[in-house]
Amino acid sequence: MADSGSRFSCLVSNAYGIVASSDAFLRVDRPPIADASATPPVVISPNGTNSTVVLDGSRSSDPDGDPLQFLWFETGATNAFATGVVAVVTLPLGTNSLELVVSDGWAVSVDQFYVEVITTAQATERLAGAVAGGVSRDQPLIATLYAALAAIDRSNPTAAMNQLLAFQNQIRAQVAPIDPVLAEQFIQLAQEIIDILSTASKAHGRIAAVAREANGTVELQFSATPGPAYIIEASTNLVNWEKIGVAADRGNGAFEFEDAHAGRMSTRFYRIVLP
């Protein structure tokens, strides 16, 4: 690594003289790190057939600070089905084996990962299983969840949401005083199902605050309806937009996003979009 960027030349000699080659520069490249761990491993389908999934490679990095290219593959495929640090795709029900390939122009790195797409009924059944395995006196809670499941089977999302809301209240009364951390996990799992069942959750956010740190990083804060994954897009000219990441949900409708690459641009515009 110490010789990276150094200039080298070669001298060739024979009986007739000496010739020096043109200068050559040595570049020592460290491979990038592909990281798709920001992609949700389990996604609930709103239609029982497939689901829109946000593939997020924003945790990938390069030790040399080189710009990266992102390609998304189905495992075993030779052609990428999506590109970009963030890609919005449609995946079918079941376990989808995927790969993120990151290149810095010299070397590549691969991260294999899985995204499981499940139905709202499957999500409710898994929640009931988690309750049965983690809560004493679980019968009233499970009964409420199976009432929600029955409503889902009848294609009655309103009744299902009401049962799930009742389940959340039961958790607050029965589990929260004993184990608040476990209670919050169950409440959040139920809320994810409610958000999928509710068509009202599809609302755009509005950026409330933008702050530039001393190191050039820009932090965005905005409020929006909980539930969807909000994608942040950036532009330097308000014409060409690039997906740069997914906002972090801080709870109660508050979202944040940190743009670590903003310092490279003199002008940067942002907008919030839904998948």
The outline comes out as elongated
Report low-confidence residues grouped into runs of 5 or more.
Answer: none
**SS summary, helix count:** 4
Total domains = 3
User: Helix/strand/pairing class, anyone?
Assistant: alpha+beta
What is the architecture of the largest domain at the second tier of CATH?
Answer: Sandwich
Give an overview in words.
The protein is α+β, with helices and mostly antiparallel strands. The protein folds into three domains: 42-118, Immunoglobulins (Immunoglobulin-like); 129-189, no CATH class; 202-273. Helix content is 24%, strand content 35%. The protein has four helices and 18 strands. The chain has helices spanning 120-134, 139-153, 157-174, 180-197, and strands spanning 7-8, 11-14, 17-20, 24-25, 42-44, 50-56, 69-74, 82-83, 86-92, 94-103, 108-118, 206-212, 218-223, 231-235, 242-246, 248-251, 254-259, 269-273. Strands 5-11-10-7-8 form a five-stranded mixed sheet. Strands 12-13-17-16 form a four-stranded antiparallel sheet, with no helix packed on it. α1 (120-134) packs antiparallel against α4 (180-197) and α3 (157-174) runs antiparallel to α4. The longest helix has 18 residues, at 157-174. The mean pLDDT is 87.
Annotation keywords:
single chain, 275 residues, alpha+beta, Immunoglobulin-like
How do the helices and strands line up, and which of them pair or pack?
Blueprint (H helix, E strand, L loop, with lengths): L6 E2 L2 E4 L2 E4 L3 E2 L16 E3 L5 E7 L12 E6 L7 E2 L2 E7 L1 E10 L4 E11 L1 H15 L4 H15 L3 H18 L5 H18 L8 E7 L5 E6 L7 E5 L6 E5 L1 E4 L2 E6 L9 E5 L2
Parallel strand pairs: 5-11
Antiparallel strand pairs: 1-4, 2-3, 6-9, 7-8, 7-10, 10-11, 12-13, 13-17, 14-15, 14-18, 16-17
Helix pairs in contact: 1-2, 1-4, 2-3, 3-4
